[in-house]
Design a protein that fits this description.
Elements lengths: L12 H12 L2 E2 H8 L3 H13 L3 E6 L9 E5 L5 E7 L3 E7 L5 E8 L6 H19 L6 E8 L19 H9 L3 E5 H11 L8 E7 L3 E7 L2 E2 L30 H5 L1 H10 L1 H7 L8 H13 L3 H25 L3 E5 L1 H21 L9 E4 L6 H15 L20
Parallel strand pairs: 4-7, 7-8, 9-12, 12-13
Antiparallel strand pairs: 1-3, 2-3, 4-5, 5-6, 9-10, 10-11
Length: 412
């Protein structure tokens, strides 16, 4: 299994080969030898077994360069599937993805609110059955379920899902669905979803800035999530922007979330009588997400008060992002999560401008900022990806994918 000078992060040669094929899109057996460092005999044996198991297909040949064209391989995307679930106080997002992580079916239902976790998990199991049956997918092809929320890897004082912290969600959902379940943090899952979707351009260090009910960040290094010792990495919402600022729920003062998060924007809009009336948030308060969206809609209509609130929020968040960028030195940042889906165009320019102006290593390399193409569902897609990865391409922690993985193209 040991290739010449290659660091192999996977637990088996089968997992390594399958993941390289996934990352490349299409690749030949010779390409797999180059990418993994395995011998030709090992590649032939592993590929034959993957084809026999229905996970990989032969699909066309490379262009001829004088020798015999190489047979190309790709994943059989319909061979197996996974379910991703993003639990959030505002809404629960469900996705069914194929082997490549592409969305087959999705739906959103009412959020967790303050309901008993056992009730929510029972309802979630029913919705998972509905999602699978509605897509017409054989349940035997479902590898597992990924379940992510802010409660995983969150501070015990976090108000939104505090009552979930001691609930055995993984065990209960496995019991009610009969499927393997993996759990994780929603911001990290969003980063993994972006990575598997191929939107990171192969950059080795990448972060997803997630704006939902709270602010968070997921960090991937060479394709592997960085969780931190206790799963608390990426708490960008708790970067201090004002040491004498208001007290945050985490116990610190002047955090980015308390100054610039969606709830801070909504609170400021409510405090402005005219703006509250214009945006329609002067009555009952359905949710922070709904009221934040109302402020964004007002800004899009040209309301100067709403625009000023969002610009102030974006400027504060941009400073927090710069602090994180100075620490981790990423190549790419992707704005994701439901809040970014709603307000991303207001935040992206401010963040990019701040990085271009003041990022420490800007003279050496830029940090590109991009808005996710599936921001509202990225955590759920990442959750499904976690299930796929756990079952098919398990990795040893702390290592990396092999370098030099390039897609090969078919001939005419």
């Amino acid at each position: 299994m040991n290739g010449p000078g290659r660091a192999i992060p996977h637990t088996t040669s089968r997992a390594a080969v399958l993941d390289v094929i996934r990352a490349a899109g299409t690749i030949s057996r010779a390409g797999l030898v180059d990418a993994t460092g395995f011998t030709g005999a090992t590649i032939s044996t592993v590929v034959r077994k993957l084809i026999d198991d229905g996970l990989v297909l032969e699909t066309g040949r490379t262009e001829s360069t004088g020798g015999k064209p190489r047979v190309l391989l790709r994943l059989d995307r319909t061979s197996c599937y996974a379910v991703g679930v993003h639990l959030d106080p505002v809404g629960i997002t469900y996705v069914l993805t194929d082997l490549t992580g592409a969305i087959v079916s999705r739906m959103t239902r009412a959020g967790t609110g303050n309901e008993d976790p056992a009730v929510i998990v029972g309802r979630t199991a029913t919705q998972i059955d509905f999602l699978i049956d509605g897509a017409g997918v054989d349940r035997e092809r479902i590898l597992g379920v990924g379940l992510v929320s802010a409660a995983n890897g969150s501070h015990p004082r976090q108000p939104a899902m505090r009552h979930w912290l001691d609930f055995p969600a993984k065990t209960e959902l496995e019991r009610t669905t009969g499927l393997p379940v993996v759990i994780g943090n929603d911001a990290t899952a969003a980063a993994l979803g972006e990575y598997w979707a191929g939107s990171t351009d192969g950059f080795p260090i990448f972060a997803a800035i997630s704006m939902g009910a709270h602010l968070g960040a997921g960090l991937l290094v060479n394709g592997l999530p960085h969780h931190g010792t206790g799963g608390f990495a990426g708490q960008i919402g708790h970067v201090c922007l004002d040491i004498e600022g208001p007290v945050c729920w985490c116990g610190a003062r002047g955090c980015a979330e308390i100054l610039a998060g969606p709830e801070a924007v909504v609170d400021a809009a409510r405090a402005d009588t005219a703006l509250a009336r214009t945006t329609g948030i002067d009555g009952e308060h359905p949710s922070v997400a709904a009221e934040f969206a109302a402020v964004v809609r007002a800004a899009r209509r040209g309301d100067t008060g709403a625009i000023a609130l969002l610009e102030s929020s974006a400027e504060h968040l941009a400073v927090a992002v710069r602090v994180m960028a100075n620490i981790v030195d990423p190549d790419l940042l992707v704005l994701t999560g439901p809040g970014s889906a709603t307000a991303g165009p207001f935040y992206l320019p401010a963040i990019q401008q701040e990085l271009d102006r003041a990022f420490f290593a800007r003279a050496e390399h830029p940090v590109r900022v991009r808005l996710s193409t599936f921001a509202s569902t990225a955590p759920a897609v990442g959750a499904a990806t976690m299930a796929l990865q756990a079952e098919l391409v398990p990795m040893y922690p702390g290592q990396r994918l092999p370098e030099g993985i390039e897609q090969e193209t078919t001939g005419a």
